[in-house]
Design a protein that fits this description.
This protein has 18 helices and 12 strands. It is α+β, with helices and mostly antiparallel strands. The strands form 4 sheets. The protein has a 5-stranded antiparallel β-sheet. The chain starts with a strand and ends with a helix.
Length: 403
């Protein structure tokens, strides 16, 4: 975490380094705030603000959670459902952080699986040498080697139904513009719920209105190649921090998170004497950030990184910009009525909605893969039961506690 122009470990570690950067007086205030939240928790716990304060205290929440979270979602934490915290932060709290710190001090386990570690505290994992795309290239190769077909840059522009089954999909090739109908025995969908409901239920106005109002956050990454970072002495990659991701808690910039690709895998960087950075911004389609032309945005992003003291913009060698619409399904607005959409989709026997957009659920990649595996198992067994898919990354105990 980058806060007050200083680096803090994430997951947060209550150690001498952190206390030294905050100062003992501030550390005492954090402890007092945490004790107050434990003695007098917010009830009922309905918002994300409630969720964070109950686990960390108001002061720690304001320092290390609020600004970044509100950059991501574009609304105050008090307007976001606590369900987001239950799915993403899970069992992390001051207590689990302290226990984890003691275990680390006694000796780090070399087990990559880390089965006894809270998800939010995991620090080591396997990573493809050329990035996550390498894994899906391998999957594609295996599908085709087994006689299957993979069609890229295709868009579903229409669906046909016969009662409770999807019978065929209207598919458009984005390269040629050509469209064709393809029959299907099963339809596994990762398209945004908005689009899926629009195509499946053209006459169900109430359902379509809920789907149309589902909120999303869009995402932009400014990729910059720089000679060096100004986080330390030396030159080139020698100056960069050792982190993969840096969460930027500084309120005076719009930058939300910074990736250092050298640290994901050195093979992803063409020139190891340079530093390859990904500056992540959260926005809405057609807002001021999204609408900015590429060159102007890259200049803006470099200026923000310089402003918080991490680069000198004169060291920028190259840049590129990637826009990703509907990257983050959001937990506010008409999301409270998502149950209506799930019930409708589950009633279509051979339709299986998976993935972050397909389920309108802020899953990690591994959760999305598990949901897809559950869908394939249902297809293979001839089952129309979708319960196993929706149970992935579902905090049932938390929902029962709220009820």
């Amino acid at each position: 975490i980058y806060y007050r122009r200083r680096f803090f470990d994430y997951p947060l570690k209550l150690n001498v380094s952190m206390l030294g950067k905050l100062g003992w007086i501030e550390a005492g205030r954090l402890g007092t705030s945490y004790a107050g939240s434990r003695l007098f928790p917010r009830r009922p716990e309905t918002t994300l603000e409630d969720f964070f304060i109950n686990r960390f205290g108001h002061r720690l929440y304001a320092m290390f959670f609020r600004d970044y979270t509100e950059k991501v979602w574009g609304v105050p934490c008090r307007e976001i459902s606590a369900e987001w915290g239950a799915q993403r932060v899970k069992g992390l709290s001051i207590t689990t952080a302290i226990v984890h710190a003691f275990r680390e001090a006694l000796g780090r386990s070399h087990d990559v699986a880390q089965k006894d570690v809270q998800t939010s505290l995991i620090e080591r994992f396997l990573y493809p040498r050329l990035g996550p795309g390498q894994m899906w290239e391998e999957v594609s190769d295996r599908v085709m080697a087994a006689g299957g077909e993979v069609h890229l840059r295709q868009r579903i522009i229409g669906l046909d139904r016969d009662g409770s089954r999807v019978t065929r999909a209207h598919v458009q090739d984005l390269e040629t513009g050509h469209a064709r109908w393809m029959p299907c025995d099963a339809f596994i969908s990762t398209m945004p719920v908005q689009q899926l409901v629009e195509q499946l239920a053209p006459d169900a106005d109430d359902l379509r209105n809920v789907a149309r109002s589902l909120p999303y956050r869009d995402f932009m990454t400014a990729g910059l190649v720089v000679r060096r970072m100004t986080a330390g002495g030396g030159s080139g990659a020698a100056t960069m921090p050792a982190d993969n991701w840096i969460y930027v808690q500084e309120p005076d910039v719009k930058l939300g998170r910074l990736q250092i690709f050298n640290n994901w895998s050195p093979d992803m960087v063409a020139d190891p004497s340079t530093v390859s950075l990904g500056l992540e911004y959260f926005c809405r389609e057609r807002d001021d950030l999204w609408s900015m032309d590429d060159g102007r945005f890259l200049s803006f992003a470099a200026g923000e990184l310089e402003k918080i003291g991490l680069i000198d913009r004169r060291d920028v060698l190259d840049g590129t910009l990637v826009r990703v619409p509907k990257a983050y399904p959001a937990y506010f607005g008409s999301y409270s009525q998502m149950g209506k959409i799930r019930s409708y989709l589950d009633g279509i026997e051979n339709l299986f909605a998976v993935g972050r957009n397909g389920m309108h659920r802020y899953n990690n990649q591994d959760h999305s893969m598990l949901a897809a595996k559950a869908a394939v198992a249902a297809v293979q067994s001839g089952s129309a039961d979708k319960a196993a898919i929706w149970s992935v990354n579902s905090e049932d105990d938390y929902h029962e506690q709220r009820d």
